[in-house]
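Inputs:
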Amino acid sequence: MSVILEVNGLTKEYKELRAVDDLSFQLSENEILGLLGPNGSGKSTTMNCILSLLKYNSGSIQIFGKEMSPSAYDIKKDIGVIFQDVAVFQELTVYKNIDYFCGLYIRDKKQRKQYIEEAIELTGLEDYKKFYPKQLSGGLLRRLNIACGIAHKPKLLFFDEPTVAVDPQSRNNILEGIEKLRDNGASVIYTTHYMEEVEQICDRIIIMDKGKIIAGGTSDSLKELTKVKEKIIVEVPKLSESKLDKLKESQKDIDIVYQHGMLTFTYKDGSDHITALIDRLRDTGIRYTRIYSERPTLNDVFLELTGKELRD
Amino acid sequence: MFLHNFRYSVQILLKNRLLVFWTLAFPLIMAFLFNMAFSKIDDTENFSAIDIAVIDNRDFQKDKIFSDALRSLGESDDPILDIKYTDDEKKAEEMLKSREVTAVVSVSKGETTVRVNGSGINETIVRYVMDEIRSDSEVIIDLGRDKIMQAVSDGENDLDYQSIFTDIAESVLSDESAVKDNSKKDISMVTIEYYTLIAMTCLYSGLLSMTLMNHHQANVSAIGKRSTVSCSKRGAMLAGTLSAAFLIQLIGLALLYIILLFIVRVDFGSDIGYIILLSAAGSFAGLTFGTAVSVLVKKSENAKLVTLLYIVMAGCFFSGMMGITMKNIIDKNVPFINYINPAAMITDGLYALYYYSSYERFFFDLASILIFSSVMILLSIRGLRRQQYDSM
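Outputs:
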C-alpha cells in the first residue's frame, strides 16, 4: 500500500506551550488512522498543521508524495475535511450547502449533481434536502457537515471529532459512512477522544498525550501493551468483610476491588477465567446478580502509560 | 468560481434577515420617519421667517463683517430670518421667554452666542445660520489679513482697507455663502438630513462585506476554515463574494432613491447623476471598510458587527445626522476627523453639490472616498493574503 500522508518531526509551539512535539507518522492508502487522546492532547492542532492552516515551528508534511503548503491546490483538490464545529450556511438548504462546498472543487454541474446525490445517500439525508440547517437535529446537522466535506470524493479525508454531541443512531450512521468511504478507496485520519469509536473503525491507532505519540499500532497490539489481560465484573449488592477477605485469601495473585456493589477481578495473564470464578464465588457463598468479562480497553492502555484516564 | 461564489453569496445575503433589515429595510424606515418629521418644514408655502432678537451693542457694531452679513440676510426679498434689533438685553430675554422670538443672538469679542428657549428645527436653523455667518466672516478676516500682509511686504503703502475687505466679502459671499444663495430653499436642512441618511446607507454595505468576508477566513469561522482548505483560489472567491455584496447594496440604494424621489419627493436638484456617482463610491467605501473590519478586528463575529455599527453610527453623528450643528463643530474644531470619517466625506460631497455652484469640493470629497477605500483595501489585502495562522 502506498503512503498517502507522511508527517516527520512536526513541532508546533504556542509561546511556551509545545502543543505538538516532534510528531512523526504515516497514513497508508485505504487506511483509517485514529488519533486518540484527551482534549488538549494536540490532535486538532496536528490536523490544522497538516492542512496548512496553522504555521508550525519545524518538521515536514508530505501528502500524495508532495510537500503540503497553503497554495498546494493540486493536493487540496483531493482532500476533504470535516471540522469539529459545524461549518454550514444557515441561509442555505441542505442541498444547496452541499452544492456550494462541492462547487469549490467540482465545476461540472452534471458531475456535481451526481456527487451531491451520492453524498446525500451516504449520509442518509434524502428526506431533508430542502430543509434549512436550523430545522435539523444535532445528529442530522453533523451528517450535513460530513456531506459537505465528502461530496467532492476526496482521496484523503480528515474527520475532527465528528460525533461530538451526536445521538447513538446518528453516530452509528456516521461511523458506518466512514467505513464505506474507506472501502470506496479513501484514506482517513480520524481524531477523537472516544476510544470505542477508534476501536470500531480504525485500522491503526495513534495515542497522543501532551502533543506526543505515546503509543501506536492496531487496537489489539496496543492492548498487548497493558499488563491487564482480562477484567471480570460481578454485581454483588451485599458483601460482608469476612467473605471478601476469604475471597482475596483464595485468589492472592488477582487484583480484587469491591466498590459501589461491584466486585472487579483484574487478571494479568491468561483469559477465560469466568467459569473458574463462578465456581469460586459459589464455594465462597457469594450471591451475585450479574457477571461479565471485559477485555482490556484502550483506556487501560492510556491509564497505564500516563497514569490518567482518557476522559480526564 | 467567480459566478459560483457570486450566486451563492447573493442568496446568503438575501436570506439573512439581520442584514436585510440593516441594509435594505432600515434606511427605508428612516426615510419615512424623516419624511414624517420634516413634512411640515418641507411645505414652502407654510414657511415663515424665524423671529430672532439681536443685541445691537458696540461689540455687534464693531464686528462689521458679521453684522453686515446678518443685516443683508434679514433684508433679502424672501428672508429666512425676521430680525429685531435691540440694545436692551433684558428686553430681548423677555421676548425669548414669551416666545416672541426663537433665539437671542449676541456678539462679544468676536464670539457669537445664540440663546434659545427650547429645542426644535427653528432653533437648529438659527444656530446653523449663525455658525455659517461666523465661519464666513472668519474666512473674510483671514483672507483680508493675508492680502494686507502681502501688500505691505510688496511695499505698498497706500492701502484702502475698506475696499480690500469689501472685495473679499463679496467674493466669499457670492462663491461660498450657502445661506445667501439658498435663503429661498427652505428645504435645505431637510435635504441635508437625507444626505446623511444616504451616507449611512452607503456605509451599511460594510455589514454585507463583513459578513461574507468572515466566511473566508479560517481564524474567524468554521466555514472560513472549510473555504481555506478548498482548492479554490481565494482571489476569485473573494471577487465573486464582494461583487454580490455590491449588487445587493446597489439594489438597496436604488430602493432608497425610489422612495426618496417618488414617495417622499425629496428635491435633489439637478445633480442627481453626481449624487448617484457619489453614492456608488460611498457604497464601495462601505464595502472596503466592512472587509477591513472583518480582517483586522480580532474578535468574534458579533463583536465585529457591533464594532462596525458603532463606527458607522458615530461617523454619521459627526457628519451631522442628528443635527447639522455637529458637522460645523467638527469642521471648525477637529477637521482631522473629516479626513478619516467616510460618512463625513459622503455627506460633505452631497452637501457640496447642493451648496456650491462649482464641483471642486465635490470632486475633492469623491477623491477622498476613493483614497479611503484604497487604504482599506491595502489593509485588508495584508490580512487576506495570509493563509496560515499562528493560532486559531
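Remarks. Chain B has two domains: 2-40+188-384, 48-181. Chain B touches chain A at residues 1, 4, 8, 11-12, 15-16, 215, 218, 221-223, 225-233, 237, 387-392 (CB under 8 Å).
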